[in-house]
Known about the structure:
By secondary structure, the protein is mainly α. Helices cover 77% and strands 0% of the residues. The longest helix is centred in the first third of the chain and has 16 residues, at 13-28.
Amino acid sequence: xxxxxxxxxxxxxxxxxxxxxxxxxxxxxxxxxxxxxxxxxxxxxxxxxxxxxxxxxxxxxxxxxxxxxxxxxxxxxxxxxxxxxxxxxxxxxxxxxxxxxxxxxxxxxxxxxxxxxxxxxxxxxxxxxxxxxxxxxxxxxxxxxxxxxxxxxxxxxxxxxxxxxxxxxxxxxxxxxxxxxxxxxxxxxxxxxxxxxxxxxxxxxxxxxxxxxxxxxxxxxxxxxxxxxxxxxxxxxxxxxxxxxxxxxxxxxxxxxxxxxxxxxxxxxxxxxxxxxxxxxxxxxxxxxxxxxxxxxxxxxxxxxxxxxxxxxxxxxxxxxxxxxxxxxxxxxxxxxxxxxxxxxxxxxxxxxxxxxxxxxxxxxxxxxxxxxxxxxxxxxxxxxxxxxxxxxxxxxxxxxxxxxxxxxxxxxxxxxxxxxxxxxxxxxxxxxxxxxxxxxxxxxxxxxxxxxxxxxxxxxxxxxxx
Length: 467
């Protein structure tokens, strides 16, 4: 039986499968040695076109008759790498190198297996050995770049990637990884140039257009970002991340209805991505549709019950809608998840104040101040809460802290004046009022409305007349 096929049939999928079957038949018929040249050729095509199981079968068949052929061991290792069996692949490459110690391809693939086994130092050593044998080997430079990228040593990775493309300017994968490195060090101009170079070589790669859109988003060039995401989607319309980030770009230029539709498309494609629902919630919140915002935040939380931002945002929506108890419950959950969040503790304190839980509110405001001691707004709220509680002394102390932080704010002097009036310290109150009115003359009318009975006080009237 003739097991050969013309060269012109090699790249046709149907004919390739036919040729694989013929080679399998040759093995089964005990004719592997006779057909070894044809089988080896088919093995190489299987490597190129990812016919992994067939290629591995044929390679093992050839090793049965040629156990000391380093090239077959190298090819078996490559198939095993593709099957993610990196430990067995590494053994095969070691076997290949024992037969041919300086085989570049085996060394490159051995380094790949070592990388995937977490043997980073060994992989690096292997690749540097390749460069000692072949100083212009672009694959070794690329492999070293990947190793340093994984360790987040982006500048070193960049240097190796640049060497790789100096040797082979058409090595497209290098541009892709190099663009990511530039992005990681916030060098967006070079990242953009690099992705453009990648897309010149791979114009139909959706991931390249998507990454280009991400760079434009970082640069706040949202219209350009949308164009890039659209090109990614034209190539691959089920690219949920492209829909998602297009939605972000649309929201940033105020096209909220379009952003809503885009996020909903992303949700259709990936129903288990809590970030999509969170962003839908944010959009509805921005559009003051609190009910829909709450619904989408709730959906995000149902997918990830420790989603801090969604819980905090939903609490704010409940509060703005007047649903104080569920709002407070969300803020309690938020501080339990992130005990150092100023926003969460402040929101909790404000809601406790709103529901007349002054003691709890004071403790929450004090917690904020342990995190951010110079937060003037919280000192002011703490002072007001002490006054509501009837704790004049602590209220006075809090207003004094406000004045230290912001000596030009009339409200603190005015608040301190009110405390002094409550304590019948008229002279001290007058001094505080004088400071308040000097800083903000309009406060004089507020005082007159708030304290109409003070008209009978000659001292106060004299102060008001002077101001």
